Amino acid sequence: MIDQVSVFLENKRGRLAELSRALGNAGIDMHALMIADTEEFGVVRIICDRPNEAAALLDEEGFSASVTPVLAVAVPDRPGGLADVLEALERERISVEYAYCFVEPSGAAAVDIFKVDGPGADIVLSNAGFRLLAPAELYSPDS
Amino acid sequence: MYQPELESMSREKIDELQLQRVQRVLKRVYENVPLYRRKFDDAGFDPDSVRGLDDLRRVPFTVKDDLRSAYPFGMFATPMRDIVRVHSSSGTTGQITVVGYTRRDIDTWSDLMARTYASAGATPDDVVQVTYGYGLFTGGLGAHYGSERLGALTIPVSGGNTKRQVQILKDFGVTVLACTPSYALLIAETAMDMGIDVRDLPLRVGVFGAEPWSDSMRKQIEHAMGITAIDIYGLSEVMGPGVAAECVHQEGLHVFEDHFLIEIVDSQTLEPVPDGEYGEVVFTTLTKEGIPVIRYRTRDISRIIPEPCVCGRTFRRMERVTGRSDDMLIIRGVNVFPSQIEQVLGSIQGVAPHYLVVLSRKGALDHVEVQVEVSPEFRFDEVRELERLQKRVKAEIESALAVSIDVKLVEPKTIARSEGKAKRVLDMRDELGGA
Questions:
Q1: Before B338, cis peptide (omega within 30)?
Q2: CB distance A62–B411 less than 8 Å?
Q3: pTM to 2 decimals?
Q4: Is residue A14 less than 8 Å (CB to CB) from chain B?
Q5: Any bridge partners for residue B179, and if so which?
């Protein structure tokens, strides 16, 4: 499991820029960013360095930020790669709350981030032969 | 005028009558209502010591909390077997106050409401549709009894089912409509949707109250409906509707001074201000038997209009009420205290106790948006958790306030803080067609 930072943002112009600048000013590097939006607000999900420090910092800066554990799975970057992972979860009746993917800089694998309901998904995926990524492979963890 | 011999009494007679009646009621409450005995004793006020109306300034005030603490019947001045009706103020359980009426009180109230209709130009030949809510609220039954007392044909529709209201307005040949001003507008709009132009109907007069409404709203209603719309004023603590009413000249509301003694006091110093100056409206009931109130602070801001009115009524007029000295709001006719919102938010995890109530007018009815801050400590990740929070806040506020609202979640610290009392309400409703 890795730590992901979630931030509540109103649909107001400039808010996302302010959020990014706050992290930038604190020397925190972001590696992935995804926004889930509704009519009235958005939830910004970030994979970044020192996620717990980042969340605390954002709270201080007037944002509403939380840290959530999510799965990071390495998937070969080829057609069907993601389907293999999802089918493995489905066989064990594990639901995916949300997911997003990005490709590692080296290009060798895609990283799939999953939020699932219930425990045990990491074991299921390992047993099915997938590699789970450790925090240090994606970002600089909190000390 | 319904009672011309009373409504055009000379000023000297009014003053004399008021003095006699106030002396009587002060003694009566002292002898029969423990709360008033305590109040007068604590203030060192002797109820026999009033020699002139100026002496009233020495009498202690009565406030809403007095009625709350006497819930339900603690302030009644007559034995319970003589009480024939009770009503209560609007608001949620725990905040309501109860008032009681003897047979004579109901009789007086009927006369006062008959005066109200007459001053709007209504006669026994009229057909009156009472759309104020019937029940514990004083509006419906007050308007009903007054119309029957006048001798008009009285239709007890109560509120709701606007299409049916329009159908009755048309089919029954209604000439006088009694309801809240915002509901009147809704009736006019609904009629239009139904292909009925209210201006083509025999409707002539509107008797509107229970919420503040501006002059531009009056013009809008009069234009949309082809009527003369008069403002009426009252509050359950003092009687119900029928405390004061405009005449057809629409320049202030004649206070029924033979039954209610009006004072305007500075809301900080509580000293009476000269006629013509603004202040807080205070009433003393002169003839009520069930629950007389002495110097009741209404929290409404107004002034006395000192000049005589061309209609010939000698009862002085008060200006239409446009503001309150406390933070109570009237939303769609319901009394709402923003501080109730604070209580609700305090019990919900995930939101801070900071809020902003934004009031606007969408069409005819009030729209309420309550902005609530997500607390920085709130642990969430999924959109649905926020949506759930929003729904919960909405449900709990609606339950506490008894009005429907929208909730907008906002980020922490975005609602302005202030030293002293925070401005919790942004009321954009003043002009119709504005926000």
A1: no
A2: yes
A3: 0.68
A4: no
A5: B208
